[in-house]
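Listing S7. Sequence submitted for prediction.
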Amino acid sequence: MTDAANPLLTPSALPYALPDYAAIRPEHYLPAFQAAFEEHLAEIRRLTLVRSMPTFENTMVPLEIAGAMLERVAHAFYTVSSADATPEIQAIDEELAPLMAAHDDAIRLDSQLYWRIKTLHEQLDQLGLDGESRYLVERHFREMTHAGAALDDEAKAQLTALNLQLSTLTTTFERNLLADTNELAVLFESAEELDGLTDGELSAAARSASEHGDEGGFLISLPLFTGHPYLASLTNRESRRRIMAASQSRAARGNAHDNRAVLTEIVALRAERAALLGYPSHAAYVTADETAGTPEAVSDLLHRLAPAAASNAREEQAALQAIIDETESEPITLEAHDWAFYTEKVRTAKYDIDTAALRPWFEAERVLQDGVFFAATQLYGVTFTERDDLVAYHAGARVFEVSNPGGSPLGLYILDLYTRDSKRGGAWMNAIVSQSALRGTAPVVVNNLNVSKPGDGQPTLLTIDEVTTLFHEFGHALHGLFATVNYPHFAGTNVFRDFVEFPSQVNEMWILWPEVLDNYARHFETGEPLDAAIVERLRSTETFNQGDDTSEYLAAAWLDQAWHRVGAGSTVEDVASFEAAALAEIGLDNPVVPTRYSSTYFAHVFSGGYSAGYYSYIWSEVLDADTVDWFRASGGLTRENGDRFRARLLGVGGSKDPLEAYRDFRGRNAEIAPLLKRRGLGS
């Protein structure tokens, strides 16, 4: 293949440098990566062979310019490998994983590059740099040191070998999980077994079954988390049990997709790597370069919240059991697959709200245009125009051009809403192109969700949880769109892991904000707004079921910490026993309230970027709840408030310490009281 025949080897001529996905074929990726690796290494060699002493201009600037081709190719590929992982793409991903790990180490562990950056770091006060440039030197020095650049050659060779093994294992974990999740989709023979689902949900299940060759059946695919949205509606207890059992058995069935040996090897290798780098555990290694600082700080927060959450969950459990005893003709003991169903009964009895019945008011297109986009326009003045002329990586992904107030171009936003077998579970945001003044690039960002697609002609009606997910992921997208930095190292959401969830969580506040909700929550057939009394009752349920919600989250966060506090040389023989002991240690071992993710399908930490960092959601929520209080006290959805939040937080990307940016925005450090109130945890 000639370079000219590979569209990845030259910058895209499309608007905003959107990759030319219509021309890109799977066979283009590996040759493009190889060329990009070679170019990046050559750029670093030229930088380190400069004979004059290091300066910011001859070291940091060329370092930030370097790697543009690799970033272009990698962003294009990894967008596809997560959202449309065909067997061909999966094979490329597996072949690529060790190559990418080796290349990353070749840059991060380069002794000559490290010497130049270390020299600049030692002279930092004499360099006269602006704030972003100074922080660039600090972060590169810290990150290279943290990665092992100060190790001797023998230790670096050990480290590189460990990183290669881990890159392969984490890819294997994700491949196994995707395959087993698809295999475990639950097939029902009749609509009667799915009593309680809406016509749209049934049509989505029928479409899925038909696509898998099961005409006349109904196929229920599994989300990434332990539960399932349909458990709240299904009246057939056996159907609920089957779905929950399938979910909890993922990648732990003794078949070819079993992740137990994979994850224990990941844990052992991460612990060995941490020891090599001078840390007692992987958790200590990770948190050392986050705002938390230490695993002890994480443990303190989780242990502060867990007892109250567990107590609240037990109270909720007793209330659910009472409902069962009052309403069921036969004795039933509440189990995990019953929780959501009877919770809706309690919610209806206590607040007169049936959340499943609200779905006609949450039609997806209206939620997007008149909710998500509307709130952003009101708050930040940005506008969105669909670009049907631009082709994304999949036919189901839609492209929107985003414009600043006054009409100047900002970037592209891509929404990929629906689930498919080739898409990994969950929801996420990623960048395809990152903004950088130095490189002259504008942002292109993607939101992926996993909403079931209804049958032809049927509307897509979202659950309130799916509405929340869309607003949440769009908060990440805004962070990626608004960050305006010189250096690509700080672009978009390139911030500390335990800070990155903060902007997305803040964006959830607009879901029930009066003028936003009234604009999008309209019945898809009649156009009638959601009844004001129902809206008020929705707001009054903020702390409802928070014992369960908080417990399942904290259980997963603690499970992540437990795995990654394992020291080098320790072995875990039995995954289930380890998991049970960890949950008992923090008092969250209630089988009726299972952890949000069990180990074998905990993709965030064993194949994603959240290892020893899943705590970051609650850590960020301290900032989020405090910020929501500020918005409410400052007038809410106003351009003045939006401009302040954009300029002082979203707009800085990773170009300053995040807690310093927060103090600049808020005028003080965040306080925990708003979070405790929100989650009904008292003081």
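Caption to Listing S7: primary sequence and predicted structure tokens for the chain studied. The mean pLDDT is 97. The first strand starts at residue 186 and ends at 188.
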